[in-house]
Design brief:
The protein is mainly alpha-helical and 115 residues long. It has 5 helices and 3 strands, in the order E-H-H-E-E-H-H-H. Strands 1-3-2 form a 3-stranded antiparallel sheet.
Length: 115
């Protein structure tokens, strides 16, 4: 029996639709903070239409387009994800030489404008 469009889906229904095991959806919930299904008694998950659309998008990014989890997070605009790997550390501020060059350009522009 098919549910009407817009109905909440259980984790098993969504997993079947996407062709994934249920534990993958639970894993995605830990990696994509935007994916937050309703949880009822006994931790039963019910995915709203927005959650279903997001899960489909994540599936598209990971399994069709070949993104990594980190790449999919960036694609979805997730700013709250933190990891400890070296490549994910914040980029250091601008080089001092660059700042000095920019300050000289600013001074030259101010002189040219007579400010």
């Amino acid at each position: 029996m098919k549910k009407v469009e817009g109905a909440f889906l259980t984790i098993s229904e969504l997993a079947d639709e996407l062709g994934l095991p249920q534990h993958i959806l639970r894993y995605w919930e830990t990696r994509f903070p935007q994916l937050r299904p309703l949880q009822r008694a006994g931790n039963r998950r019910y995915y709203r239409p927005a959650d279903v659309a997001l899960a489909r998008r994540i599936h598209e990014l990971l399994h069709v387009q070949g993104f990594t989890v980190k790449g999919a997070q960036k694609s979805l605009g997730d700013k709250s994800v933190t990891t400890s790997s070296e490549e994910d550390r914040p980029v250091p501020g601008p080089d001092k030489d660059i700042l000095a060059q920019l300050e000289r350009v600013r001074a030259d522009l101010a002189a040219a404008l007579g400010a």
